[in-house]
TrEMBL record:
InterPro entries: SlyX (IPR007236). It comes from Pseudolysobacter antarcticus. It comes from the Bacteria. The lineage of its organism: Bacteria, Pseudomonadati, Pseudomonadota, Gammaproteobacteria, Lysobacterales. Pfam families: SlyX (PF04102). This is SlyX family protein.
Length: 71
């Protein structure tokens, strides 16, 4: 091969190595974000259930409660 062709091939190999490293890094980041998102969804669902339980507890009829002690 000519020197120019070898240089171009070397440049392409360097670029490929850089792109391959970047893809691996992005893949790791995406996997980490997926785990975080999964945990956040679970926590959100738990909080939503807690809120629903609180709403249910607050929506009862006030007449069912005993009058306050000052009556």
């Amino acid at each position: 091969m000519t020197d120019l062709l070898e240089q171009r091939l070397t440049d392409l190999e360097v670029r490929f190595a850089f792109v391959d490293d970047m893809v691996q890094t992005l893949n790791t980041m995406a996997a980490n974000q997926d785990r975080v998102l999964f945990k956040m969804r679970q926590e959100f669902e738990r909080l939503r259930q807690d809120l629903d339980a609180i709403k249910t507890g607050l929506s009862h009829d006030a007449r069912e409660e005993a009058p306050p002690p000052h009556y």
